[in-house]
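Dear colleagues,

I hope this message finds you well. In preparation for our joint manuscript, I am sending the Alpha-glucuronidase (Echria macrotheca) sequence together with its predicted structure, so that both groups work from identical material. I would be grateful if you could confirm receipt.
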Amino acid sequence: MRASKLVYSDFRSMCCIGLDFPDGAILRCGFDRRFWSSGAAAAENGIDGWLRYAPLPADLLQGAASTPTAIVVLNSTDSSPISIAAREVQKGLQGIFGKNLDILQPSAARNGSHVVLGTLSAYNTGWGNLNVSNLAPDGYFLSVRRGSVSIVGRNERGVLYGAFAYLSRIAQGNFGDAQFVSNPDAPIRWVNEWDNLDGTIERGYAGPSIFFSEGTVVKNLTRVSQYARLLASLGINGLIPHNVNANPSILSDENIDGLGRIADVMRPYGVQLGISINFASPKSLGGLNTFDPLDPAVIEWWNNRTKALYKRVPDLGGFIVKANSEGQPGPLTYNRTLADGANLFARAVKPYGGIIMFRAFVYDRFADWTVWKADRANAAVDFFKDLDGKFLDNVVVQIKYGPIDFQVREPVSPLFANIPKTAVAMELQVTQEYLGQQSHFVYIPPMWKEILDFDMRVNNKSSTVRDIVGGRVFGQKLGGYAGVVNVGTNTSWLGHHLSMSNLYGYGRLAWNPKQDAQDLLQEWIRLTFGFDKTVLDTITRIGMESWPTYENYTGNLGIQTLTDILYTHYGPNPASQDNNGWGQWTRATTTHIGMDRTVKNGTGNAGQYPPEVATMYENIETTPDNLILWFHHVPYKQRLKSGKTVIQHFYDAHYDGAANTQTFAPAWENLRGKIDQQRFDEVLFRLRYQAGHSIVWRDAICNFYHNLSGIPDEAGRVGKHPYRIEAETFSLKGFTLTGVNPPETASNFTAIWTTPRNGTGEAVTTLDFASGTYNIAIGYFDIIGGRAHYSAYLNAIPLYEWYGDLEDRLGHAFSEKLDGHSATRVTIPGVQVKRGDVLRIVGVANGNETAALDYVAVLPEGIVD
Ligand code: GCU
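The corresponding structure tokens are as follows:
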């Protein structure tokens, strides 16, 4: 057997960081260090995202027949987007070609190949004659003729977007001539951050806020400026830094000034500031005794605050409002309509050209689950349909893509087809709240594309959701996109380097929703990791398989992400969906599962869609398998179009999903040496973690429905773990048996833990396996509140040692309890075992963290258990 002792803290200082450390990794790491010291790749921490401007490989550089010799700016002030565009082009060409170009005024331009930057009017007044009548606001014209480049915007922002588009082309080795106009699909392309004034971020998984700390705006806004640069490169033109669950004191004089500083930093990048406001502010901040939207004193209060805001931020984009939702105050308190509430603000910002993003996420969180026809999915249409036509023209209703809440699969929200006289925006979630919280990787654009390309068949005519959002179906001037991003101070921005593909994809789709999700992923890979074909192929595969894989091991057939909706929305807890007022019901019984949303027998939700779509969802035969449980309540043995029963599909999908997840980390490991060390290690660590946690998901969901329905798995896998030794069967000293909650998140429903919590425990077993080489996986629980310590010994020789410190290493807290969030595992690869070897594990609790073990799996190569 291998017996050298591996201590995680030693590894921190080494190049190789990961959950699983084979002894061989030491050798491999040594190799890598030598490799990197040869200058193969510079250290990178992700801060530049896709804007790295890395030198091109020599073979690609040969394609650049001639390169520009100077940059000419036609019109700019020091802090204008055009000036930023010029500096960005300078930086890009320096990085990519190693050429340092001067930035010149037109009068100083000599003969040569120039990158000319200016607005259309400046271009036609001072440089040439360009006829591009189809150039829309924020749009750009790009002409590349060998080394001569013209970048012309309808406005200054457009010039900056054109500059980034040009840089993206050459950074990807595309030196071909081109001449085209690119206009955004919709005017609103915003991001929402859910940052709190105290510096925490609601549903943020990458460290504290870059905007706020201790009740106010941070002093150093460098990260905000870096973020604005990333956003501008995608064509994002608005940002709301403050949580939709808004703190009224965002509107204090001090904070208005702080917001002004944020706006000042983002303005050169063309990113407008928007503000999230709390409906009750006149009362809670202003000291009035009411926040009734029709009360003159309330109106005056808002007008005054709005005036103060615009005084400090003259180009403020407007407000976002979450009203009467999840405990937030709103107009319904005073029997006023949601339109009364929205219009109050619309009037206040109108004189300044502002808009109101009014969220449609309004529902009753105390719904009665015993009522068969009650349905949260109906809420948005129920609340908003009759208000159509009552909103002022600078109100945009911001609608989440699905009727519930960013689930792994939902149909498109029917509200998009129900308020033709109202401008709408689609809210998408870049932060992976229900999709693994950046500890799992899910590339989301393929899901967004399904939503955007969905044809609502309004009036029986083609009416894709993207055309509705772009204002074309109902003739709206306003419309667009809001992406909930929640970046943090982590240099990777989102916690997982690969998750940045979601921000990239979001921005690029908001500019042009017709683009292909895989093309966008590959653009992002080239810009983020370079040109190696194996890198491209590997990340493309992982990325394109990631959403279906995650869906497979979390929630199938439209049942939603079967996570713990009463706690942290992360690990599995299918029972938490039902029997409470939140309305994310599955209606699972011992015989049936799924929401009956038909008109004939259920909640009537299918009838909220235009007739052709309504008919499709009303009938089980025409409802696609992947939404069958969203729309229909069926027996577990209902046959799908695939030929499988619902329950067997659940089992198979979970086993397939978890098995496929096991392939991601090894595929990534093949990229060792092709990606800089830090990003390589950090991604590897998370992919390995995901592999372990996908098994937690698989087992919890399969066991739950197996127990509930009593229907066996045709393949005989569920509940059987031939390679595992349950911790409760070890001989124990200091450890005692415990159940976990939910029970199915522990193997055999039982774990062991140290009691008292600050104690030490020892668990010993004899390995009754044929002698050979095995991967030893140890299931344990990592709760927050301390860093428990574990050491494993084989025949008294130290084998492996680790800490329960995932909260540090994954950058977000999971749970204080033993459950599906805290359940995880480590794998020690390549251990030589002889029949009769003795395995001993010592756990030492720390702080509030108990040491808790679930099982040990002794796995022959290729076996997943
Ligand atoms: C989800 C999320 C909340 C958030 C809410 C919203 O429910 O869990 O944290 O506040 O959406 O979008 O307003």
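For the figure legend, we might mention the following. Residues 58-182 form a domain with the Chitobiase; domain 2 fold (CATH 3.30.379.10). Residues 1-40 have pLDDT under 50 and may be disordered.

With kind regards,
E.M.
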